[in-house]
Amino acid sequence: MISGISAGLLKGHRFVKRDEGKTCALCHGGRVYPEYTGEYGGTPDVHYQKGMQCMDCHKKAEFHGDGKAYASRQERKDRPVCTNCHPAGQEKTEKAKSAHTTHAGKLSCAGCHASGQYRNCYDCHAGKGATSKPAFILGRNPRDKNMITTLRVIPTVRDTFKAAGIKMEHFDLLPNYWDTVPHNIKKRTERTRSCDVCHVDKEVFLTKEKLIPGGSKANEGLIYTPKSIKQ
Amino acid sequence: MKGKKLSVFCLVLAFVFALPLFALARDIAPVVSRDWLEKNLNDSKLVIVDIRKVEEYKEGNIPNSINVFYGTWAVKKKGLDNELPEDDDLFDVIGSAGIKAGSHVVVVGKIDTVADQVNLTRVAWTLIYGGIENVAILDGGFNKWKEAKKPISTATVKSKAGTYQGKTNKSLFATKDYVISKIGKANIIDTRMPDFFFGVSKLDFVERAGHVKGAVALPSPWIFAKDGTFKSKEDLEAMAAGVIGKDMSKESITYCDTGRLCSGWWFVLREMLGYIDVKSYDGSSQEYAKDPNAPMVKYTWQ
Asked: What is the pTM of this model?
């Protein structure tokens, strides 16, 4: 049983009128879609509030491909990017302009604009079933350690494949937290409203104490403690 | 001198009697019928706000209606569900929906469940809190509109977005401390079903069973008839009078578990029946019961 996927699968190769709430959400209904509509205990993404659905951002080239076999979706350069529609320099307030300039290249858009908690999976494959719970985690992007971003727990632990006799000898090379873009974006969040949330309170950041028990040693490399703001 | 005193007395008396009229200074009825809405579809002052999911709206909607999903109007804040958005966020939503201070707004949604029904009153409360006084609910929602074979469109209407700089009406809103300060003074109305009021049932996220000390029970699900439409004004009037009396100027505060259900009686009391001072406590039991010092009682109807 995969948590959240409960709507069944498309029947054979039957094409239906485009309806992202049925088609896309069949597979992405465990995590992304309910985050987007706000039904996963939060609030709707601002784009959903404006009536936008999956294919308003994810264009058909993403689905049909370009004939080339990519090893990972990360290799694709035509994925949706916030600044395609919201380029820097179009901010309406000085505060927004200054915040964007200060954090450019250091912090992902979602780092500030993800509106709140998103689904994270804990204890999956750890011999005691899967549990998911909401959390909000900021830390270093494992793909680019100079960038701070929203991280999501990937539910693989040291003994995931123990029952199958696989030791996972290189388990510590990769972290258990990976960069994610929660689909619960808002214009204003507690982090856009107050610098203190990150630079004084710091509660949203990954710390040694918060790391999942028995996780990869590589997790520690994602810990980041923001500096205080110089006056 | 005696005549002057009498005139002042008469003026004061006239003002007191006129108060309910000020409170009900509406240009449109609080609950509108399908026929009324059909006749007014092209009224330039009218903004029809469909609060169903985007997918449902796109499948079929009332012509000229715009879609602003329920979750936009009632957000999660600091661990509490169904909270008011921050003022600037609320004004952004109102402005981008093309609603102006003088607009006539009709809220449309589903009526499949009690939660759907009170979503309508919750959005109405939020809009009125945001400074829009002429807010109505389509009786029977989209369900009855469709059943009555009224015109349906599949077009997505783009709102005439503008900037809205209103003034929030704080007198419609109660905080936990305010509720505690009004125990024994105001009508505190528990709008959940009686088993929750009595304390034999409780939702998991509510820390203590029972009700606010001194509260009375007036469940919001009882506002609606079996077909999801509003009960008659006479019935609602009698239900309210039987529980909180007929003193229209006495302060009332409605609450529930998360601040959604309580909007039902808030809407009926203030908008339909003319009770003047009605507040809604959107923190409700989810917040209240967390505070061990907040007075609660259970296993009593008192």
From this structure: 0.89
